[in-house]
Amino acid sequence: MCGRNCRLRNGGVSSEPFGTGKLLMNSPIPLNQITRLAAADDNVAISTRTLPAGTAIATSAGVFTLAHTVLEAHRIAVRPIAAGEQLLSWGQPFGTAITPIRVGDGIVNAAMLTELRLRQLDFTLPDAPNFSDDIPPYEFDAHRFTPAPLLESSAADLSFMGYVRPESRGVGTRNLIVLLGTSSLTGAFVRALETRLEALAHAYPNIDGIVAVAHTEGGGAQPNNRDLLLRTLAGFMVHPNVGAVLAVDQGMEAVTNAHLHAYLRAHEYPLDATPHNFFTLKGGFAASLDRAEQIVRAWLPTVAAFERQRVSARHLKIALQCGGSDAFSGISGNPLAAQV
Predict the structure, then answer these.
(1) Are 204 and 177 a contacting pair, CB within 8 Å?
(2) CA torsion 222→223→228→229, rounded to 10°?
(3) Signed CA dihedral, 314, 316, 321, 325: sign only
(4) How far apart are CA 70 and CA 292, in angstroms?
(5) Angle CA(333)–CA(335)–CA(340) in degrees, nearest 5?
(6) CA distance 112 to 244
(7) What are the phi and psi torsion angles at 89 (to 5°)?
């Protein structure tokens, strides 16, 4: 089967990526080879590659032709959809058709067309959107929900070699010193500090690395996801893979070390069980690097004192939470994570 990094052409295989070339066929392509139908009753399918206008696609109901180019991970209609009818993916409505949609039409709303028109594309876009974002609030129906059967517990006494942390921090699979940029404005600093210090871990077999964690939030205006950002940063501070953490801010951002510290205390995170320092940049970039380096160097013996121990696999936690999904999340990423 052709994977994400190859495409079919005239019945053969090319090494060009889907997103950079065109897919040309002499005969219709079976729908299930180039799309994924998330649920049997969906009226749209997800394209697994870029499909040029004019591509002939074979379905159980016959052959249809794409009216416009459909990009990889975009959706196409696999059944006629009347104006006013809901569009379904995963059996869930995500929009309403504002014009009749024919089999083979790409699914586009106004926002998609606005974004795509800003790009230098080598194909023609539809003149107008064919659906609007009318997403009804989701209501869980317990009577229609069928949970997957639970896996049987292993008869073997499974274990792994982990780092046992004090208090309620759990057991880690790594022993890292984390350089945490509290806001986007200190991302460059923690990356520079990582470059300066990462080699220090090589002298300590029990330290798996000195790593920067940088992100793009909380540096300017008050973020609308402030609580989620603080919760995420708090999770890094006490994560069992963290042997010590340096949280770095400039002291005047929308989200600062003071906010993070207050959040950790208010929600009773086991902060005192983690060697940590709330570090504010002062006195210039180079001088701050020197001061931060001394703090991290002082932690090295403490972090290196943690040794791997054999512990029950019941301590191993794999956290799964859906975030900003794209069209492939449900058909590839989520099933793979669940299988793991």
Answers:
(1) no
(2) -80
(3) negative
(4) 50
(5) 95
(6) 44
(7) -135, 130
Return the structure tokens found at 163.
């780092």
C-alpha 197/C-alpha 165 separation (Å) is 24
Can you spell out the DSSP letters for 232-296? HHHHHHH-TTEEEEEEEE-SSSSS-HHHHHHHHHHTT--GGGS-EEEEE--S-HHHHHHHHHHHH
For the chain (340 residues), the mean pLDDT of every run of 10, in chain order, is 32 33 64 91 94 90 89 93 95 94 92 92 93 86 87 87 93 97 96 98 96 92 90 96 98 96 97 97 95 98 97 85 71 80
For position 323, what pLDDT does the model report? Answer: 58
- CB-count exposure of residue 215 (10 Å: 0-12, 13-18, 19+): middle
Which residue do the tokens 């994400």 mark? 4
pLDDT of residue 230: 96
Taking the C-alpha atoms of residue 63 and residue 32, their distance in angstroms, rounded to an integer, is 13
Whole-prediction pTM value? 0.64
Question: CA-to-CA distance for 221 and 278, rounded, in angstroms?
Answer: 22
